[in-house]
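Entry 12.
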Amino acid sequence: MPKIEKFVVQTDWLWYEAEITEEQAEEYRQYENLETDTPVINNENLNEKKGVDLDNMRDEPDWLYDLDYDLVRDKPASDETSFELIEE
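Predicted 3D structure (C-alpha cells):
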C-alpha cells in the first residue's frame, strides 16, 4: 500500500526577560566582549593555540539558565510542511 509522509518544521518565537544583579550584568558584558573579541580560529592557530583559551572561549555564565524568566512577547508559530510519496 502506498504511503505519504508529512514532515513539519515548526518555529516558535518567544521573548523572555529576567531581572539580574549588577554583578551578573557585568559578567554577561564580559562574556559578550569575549564573544566579539575572540579571534577567528583557523587550522593554523588552532594547532598552535596562539594564546586562545579554547576551553573557555564560548562558555556562558552558569546562572544564565537558572533565572526566573517571564514571557514578555510571543509571535504565532510558523511551520514549513513538505510531503513525500513513499513507494514500497
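Annotation: Residues 44 and 50 are 9 Å apart (CA to CA). DSSP finds two helices and two strands in the chain.
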